[in-house]
Design goal:
It is built from five helices and no strands. It is an all-alpha fold. The protein has a single domain, classed as Up-down Bundle (de novo design (two linked rop proteins)), CATH 1.20.1440. The chain starts with a helix and ends with a helix. The mean pLDDT is 89.
Length: 125
C-alpha cells in the first residue's frame, strides 16, 4: 500500500466517522466523531513528518507522536465498541472495525520505517 492509498483510506474512514453524530442526536457520538477525525488527521500528518525527519532526534520524536495518536485511536475505538455492545448498531460496528484496520496499517508502516532505519544504521556501523 502506498502512502497516497493510506491517506485516501484515512479520508474515507474520517467520512464514516463524521456520520456517527447523526446516528443518535444528543448523544456523545459527536465527541467521539470529532476526536476520531482529529486523531486520524494527525496520524496522516505525523507519518509524513516521520518520513521527512532530518535528524535522528526529530525522527524518534515523530515516531513517539505517531504511537500516541495510534494509542488514542485505539482507545476511542475500544470505548466506541464498548458503548455499542448494547445497541449493536451496524454503522458503529463498521466504523470500529475500520478504525482498528486503519491503526493496524499505520502500525505496519511504523514498523517498516523503524526496520529500515535500523538496517541503515547497521550498514553504517
Amino acid at each position: 500500500m502506498t502512502l497516497e492509498q493510506l491517506s485516501r483510506l484515512n479520508e474515507k474512514f474520517q467520512q464514516k466517522a463524521s456520520g456517527l453524530a447523526e446516528l443518535l442526536p444528543g448523544s456523545n457520538l459527536l465527541t467521539f466523531s470529532t476526536t476520531i477525525i482529529r486523531t486520524t488527521k494527525k496520524l496522516d500528518v505525523v507519518l509524513k513528518k516521520v518520513l521527512n525527519a532530518k535528524s535522528e532526534g526529530s525522527f524518534y520524536t515523530q515516531i513517539e507522536a505517531m504511537e500516541e495518536e495510534m494509542d488514542e485511536l485505539i482507545f476511542m475505538m475500544d470505548r466506541l465498541d464498548e458503548a455499542n455492545r448494547k445497541r449493536n448498531i451496524g454503522t458503529i460496528t463498521d466504523v470500529v472495525k475500520a478504525g482498528y484496520e486503519l491503526v493496524s496499517l499505520y502500525s505496519l508502516c511504523c514498523d517498516q520505517i523503524l526496520e529500515r532505519k535500523t538496517k541503515k544504521q547497521d550498514e553504517i556501523e
